[in-house]
Amino acid sequence: MDDRAASPDSTSSTLSCITVATRLDTAARSSIGASSSNSTPPTSQDDSASIVSDATKAEAPAETQQDKPELEQDQDQNTRRTSRRSRSSISTYNVQILAGTAIHTPTKYLEKHTKNVMRQERAVSDSTLVNGSADTKGKLLDDSTEKLDSDWVDEAPTGPLDNGSEDRLKRRKSSRVDLLKEVTRNAMASASSNLGKRGREVLESGKDKLQALRKGTGSLRRRQSESTIRVEPAPKRAKLSTVSMSDLPTEAEKAQEIVRPKVKRWQTQGLYLGQHRDFDARFTESKNQKKRKSTALKENQVLPLPMFAGERLLSLPYKEARDFKLPFDVFSPLPRKAKPEDWKKTSKNLFVGDAATIWKKSKPQAESYCLCAPEEGCGESCQNRFMLYECDSTNCLISPEHCTNRAFAELKRRSKGNRYDYGVEVVETEDRGYGVRAMRTFNPHQIIVEYAGEIITQEECDRRMNNEYKNNKCYYLMTFHNKMIIDATRGSIARFVNHSCEPNCRMVKWTVAGEPRMALFAGDRGIMTGEELTYDYNFDPFSSKNVQECRCGTASCRGVLGPRSKDAPKAKAATALVAGAKRKIQEVFGSKGSRSKAAGPNKRRKVATIARSALAKAKKSVTESQGRDARAEKEAAETEARSASRAERAIRRSSSTITVASKRSKVLRKGSSASLSTVASKRTIVSVRQTTVSTARPGALRRPSTKLSRFTSAVKRHSSAIKSASRKSVLPAPSSPVSSKAAAKSATASTPTAASVKSKVSSSGLRQTTLPFKPLSLDLSTGSSSPLAPNDDDIDGNLREFAALPARAMKRPTTASSVRSAAASVKKNVVRSVRGPRRAAAVARMGLGLGVGGMGGLGEGGSGSTIRVILGEGDD
Ligand SMILES: C[S@@+](CC[C@H](N)C(=O)[O-])C[C@H]1O[C@@H](n2cnc3c(N)ncnc32)[C@H](O)[C@@H]1O
């Protein structure tokens, strides 16, 4: 070990010290790579090349800087690149070796001739020095400093080594140091021919420096001489060459050496092992594989790992499955891909055949506009929401970011995202064919997926049922709009959603940009990831033949796909039983007067007893089934009556206390040359009856009633608001009259109270007992309004849509100033709606000179906590 300490021979430093000839470096590396047997085991399959790499790691001792002379340390610092430690992890791949083109010295040869090599080191050094090609720093070999200095060499023992040294030499097992020496020797030998003039000069100067150093540094010299030097007297150069040449491997040997397969060492422990559930880290991979194949390995049923426990619970057959859900962030179910074969996909409604024509003719005329303020965000009180109209830029003033009533727009956005944004997938169920599962959570009432398909007429549906689908087990038909039908045989994923008597979703029809569209929405509880999506089909089987057993497995399962009142098939079965029994009796006893003579009296008696009991049973069954029917019908009737009375009450209350007006009006102007004439407020016609959600659904009865109850509570809130407003507020007269007529009007209405406003509203005919509202025309020039003719759209080509009343103007104009500002903003909008040369006139009339010409009635809004300004008869 001393010799190592004395000579800084770490591989890295050795290599880095060859600054003048980079080829030496390359040669040295290739030799190392070729002959190293001390590689680090590879850690992956692709890492086989690493078997031959990284020879620099293992055995070179850590050298200490204190052991070196000062100058040497300086030189080291200047020339050394990175530390051995930091380089050790870098795998080096010797391309020459891998390609089989490297000229190298096999390890075998090196080991065999270790001794020779050791002995010849000195000779090599000498010879290279003669040729002027030694390493400049004299650090390549342990004892290179000795070789450079003849005095020093003289001090070294020249005879046979002492016993200790010889032993140590014998004990040396590793060929590494020898290898390094061999490499260096080769490098130096080749350097002698490769070095140019300059290189040789550097070499010489290095030699001089070392000599100077030696002279001045007695301590180093002493240390060197004290150390056991294992170098033997230099053999003759001729001998070296003879030995080297004779022992060089032949070409065949080299080739064999190169192609010899490298043994791959597999990692048996570590982070990425045991990723499959049957892996046991205590065993080898092969043993694990064997175990996996044998059925003997049973999963720990009591305490399985959490991830596997969750998976197991979720994958149990649904009857055994426990009521258990892992949160999404703990267990994200991997999609079990089901690929339905005959599914032609489309995510948009396609009108087919006559349906397109019918659709164009029967486009819904009714419109809805919302009056929500931005802070309300089109929430529960939004009129559009209430009417199942989606808000958009044409019917809502709120920006899309703040409006929460744009479900289909959200769906469109989501469909452009990734599959988890989209959030649903087809899965195979145990006993109901395919189904749909949520891949994410959904909030209560959030849109999930659109039910899209081909829109066909009833006739086309019949044709398809009788021809194309006559052998089908599943139909994907749903009543849509105006007696049209959505056929989702070619349709969206929603067609796979199964029925449940306790569903977690609802299928709802909305009007989006004037078109009806169906979509599946989350129910009141919301949806968890992994949950199967279901809705109540309220299936109409058309005939008893089509009645299907329900396998939803819920507590309140009705037993069939359809409403409970469809117990009719059972009743029918009972009736058939009675008829069968009667027939039997007749067969036995024969018809009246012609009793069968064939049967003996005993047999007749026996059969008669059986027949009587059968008849009694059948009758009992009929009675029971009739009783069930009656009860079901009674229940249905009660529910309907309850809903109807609730609806009636709500309407009565609403009509007695408020007048709901739509926000959007249309300004109709008669294009006379002289004046800005008639501005008609064409009121939106909406009907509560339009809230039919989807056809033939008892749920549809419930839904409007829920809506109505919400509506009713909104109405109540407004009633109390108006009452308190009427107590508080006194509305002053508008400050600047519009015209003499308007001035007169405003004078008469100088101090309108809430009550007077109410009475005014009622006298103007705006007060409605039933919806829809009567449309009014508003004459700005005269300040009067009158009910519009039913078809008032033909006023003239200057018809313009009245810019919606700003939401601000809708908010509680209970004080004089707020009323004034509301009125002003109405006027501004009227003016804004006028374009072209008449605008100036309008501005003149409505704006500066004219001021506020009096407000319409102050009524209660239909929703939320706002009180809405209504342009009524006699108003500007
Ligand atoms: C619109 S498809 C639903 C998707 C269907 N499971 C499939 O594989 O294509 C309706 C059919 O699914 C089956 N189905 C849906 N819900 C069911 C339930 N709760 N019980 C039994 N069958 C059901 C019935 O065969 C029904 O006719």
TrEMBL record:
Ranges of residues in domain SET: 422-538
GO cellular component: chromosome; nucleus
Bias (Low complexity): 28-39, 732-764
Keyword Lipoprotein set for record: no
Compositionally biased tracts (Basic and acidic residues): 136-150, 626-651
Domain Post-SET: 546-562
Amino acid composition bias (Polar residues), ranges on this chain: 40-53, 125-134, 779-788
Main location: nucleus
Subcellular localization: Chromosome; Nucleus
Residue stretches making up the AWS domain: 365-412
A biological-process GO annotation: methylation
Ranges for region Disordered: 28-92, 120-173, 614-674, 690-766, 776-795
Keyword terms of this UniProt record: Chromosome, Methyltransferase, Nucleus, S-adenosyl-L-methionine, Transferase
Signal peptide limits: none
One Pfam short name: SET
Record-level Gene Ontology MF annotations: histone methyltransferase activity
Protein name per the record: Histone-lysine N-methyltransferase
Native source organism of the sequence: Glonium stellatum
Record lineage: Eukaryota, Fungi, Dikarya, Ascomycota, Pezizomycotina
